């Protein structure tokens, strides 16, 4: 059984990410709620914090190690500048539970390879244009951060 409202793929992380993508697409083209439910509600403006928000940043945890997943990539305009991040914006989730995620980073963060999520500057998190495809079946846990405006 899935754990999202609108999807039941049998994979909890997949279901939540599909729901996040749907909510994000509603606002951007291209009381003890769980962190993800609260972030989705904020994104959709169902709470007082919804104005101008377009992204639910997520941290994914690898199934075998239960450690936070760190993605690496380079922007096509600067292939020599590889960056890493523990924070992602979900761009698309396919029916087979593969997803395209985009690295989120603070543009002023000079640590291109943080060792831990708490070592990475997160204010403000911005879209990088660095995307990768991941298999959501490799993850056992997801943490959603409060919704942000990653495109301003």
Structure in a nutshell:
This is Spore coat protein Z. The protein contains two helices and seven strands, in the order H-H-E-E-E-E-E-E-E.
What does this structure look like?
InterPro entries: Spore_coat_protein_Z/Y. This is Spore coat protein Z. Pfam families: Spore-coat_CotZ. Keywords: Capsid protein, Virion. With 152 residues, the protein is an alpha+beta fold. 16% of the residues lie in helices and 27% in strands.
Topology (SSEs and partners):
Layout: H1 12-27, H2 35-43, E1 58-62, E2 71-73, E3 83-85, E4 88-93, E5 98-105, E6 126-135, E7 139-144
Antiparallel strand pairs: 1-7, 2-3, 4-5, 5-6
Which key features would you list for this structure?
alpha+beta; 16% helix; Spore coat protein Z; Spore_coat_protein_Z/Y; 3-stranded antiparallel beta sheet; capsid protein; 152 residues; 2 helices
């Amino acid at each position: 059984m899935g754990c999202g409202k609108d999807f039941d793929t049998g994979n909890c992380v997949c279901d939540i990410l599909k729901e996040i993508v749907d909510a994000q697409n509603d606002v951007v083209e291209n009381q003890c709620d769980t962190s993800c439910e609260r972030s989705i509600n904020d994104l959709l403006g169902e709470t007082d914090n919804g104005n101008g928000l377009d992204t639910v940043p997520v941290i994914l945890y690898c199934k075998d190690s239960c450690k936070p997943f760190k993605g690496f990539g380079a922007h096509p305009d600067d292939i020599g500048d590889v960056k890493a991040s523990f924070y992602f914006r979900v761009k698309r989730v396919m029916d087979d539970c593969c997803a395209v995620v985009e690295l989120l980073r603070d543009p002023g963060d000079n640590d291109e390879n943080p060792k831990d999520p708490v070592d990475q500057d997160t204010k403000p998190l911005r879209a990088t244009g660095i995307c990768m495809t991941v298999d959501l079946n490799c993850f056992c846990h997801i943490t959603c951060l409060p919704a942000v405006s990653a495109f301003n």
